[in-house]
Prior knowledge:
Layout: H1 2-5, H2 25-33, H3 37-48, H4 52-72, E1 78-83, H5 90-102, E2 108-114, H6 127-130, H7 132-136, E3 140-146, H8 158-167, E4 172-176, E5 193-198, H9 206-209, H10 212-216, E6 219-222, H11 230-245, E7 258-260, H12 266-286, H13 288-314, H14 317-331, H15 337-354
Parallel strand pairs: 1-4, 1-5, 2-3, 2-4, 5-6, 6-7
Helix pairs in contact: 2-3, 2-4, 3-4, 3-8, 4-8, 5-12, 14-15
Organism: Andalucia godoyi
GO molecular function, one term: GTP binding
Amino acid sequence: MFVGVLRASCVPRTTALVRNYSLTGRELADRIISADRIALSRGITLLESTKTDHHVCVQDAVSRILVQRRRRSHTSAFRIGISGPPGAGKSTLIESLGIHLCNSGVKVAVLAIDPSSTVTGGSILGDKTRMTELSRHPLAYVRPSPTRGVLGGVTASTYDAMLLCEAAGFEVVFVETVGVGQSETVVAELADMVALVVYPGGGDELQGIKKGIVEVADMIVVNKADGENASRADHTKADFESALSLLRPQSVSWKPPVLKCSAFQPATVSAVWETMAKFKDIMTETGELQRKRLRIRQMWLKKQIREELMTMLLQNNDVMARMKSVSNSVEAETMTPREAAQQVIDAFMSAVTQK
């Protein structure tokens, strides 16, 4: 299985560096590649920053890392998206899976996307405080990141953060989304595999969850399936199996399974991981995994273009003045939103051509 082919490389934590050190892109890349955890955290912080000089530094580092990957024929990490409704036990399951893998010698990174505080913009939940045992493991890295209002269950910097984790030598990267809903399907646009985690009795929530996230799920895990929940877990498993039978599978090589699991029963946690590893093996053999990663890179290219254009637009004083003017017209219903948007774009294009 997948665990058997991974090579463990336990690198001691770096403790001798100053916390607020300043690095060039080259230095940052070199330290991340050498598995410096402080540099990795610094790099992700720079990705999440709104300062232009921070972005320039970390993008230089990412570019250098990509060059090193090509030279060394570096193998990408197995990227697993974990989504599910609040209370389904996503964090607990990830911690159990992470400990299971780390104890087998696999380096695991967790990017836990938290809802943002409307006051500070920072993470509200702080999954690192909930995955305490995994956080202490020498082969694990847990990083909570605030969404800062970005829809889709992941942050705008999640894709690059995964690349940094891979460069630091982590072989499996879990991405835990904020919650569940139609917008959470964005996680399928960056992960090799998407696991939907639900709780016993959650079959009644199928209508509330909608079929969006179920359609992109490569497996469904009925979590907390122990004790008094055992019987309800059976019913929930049957409900989701019935729902999946009505959907067209995304792959001709893989039919999404529904598994019962309890984070406190190692055998069921192991079974979940074995299913994930089996998915990777099959999708790699058929070439579907490589094709999916190509599509993901193209999707994130378009996302970044939109984001950069919006940033440039909002930083132009003439454009912002026109936006304020047309906003008033839209509010007064003397102009449609489409017409107003076109005027803002025209102002932007005019500003660009004048340069």
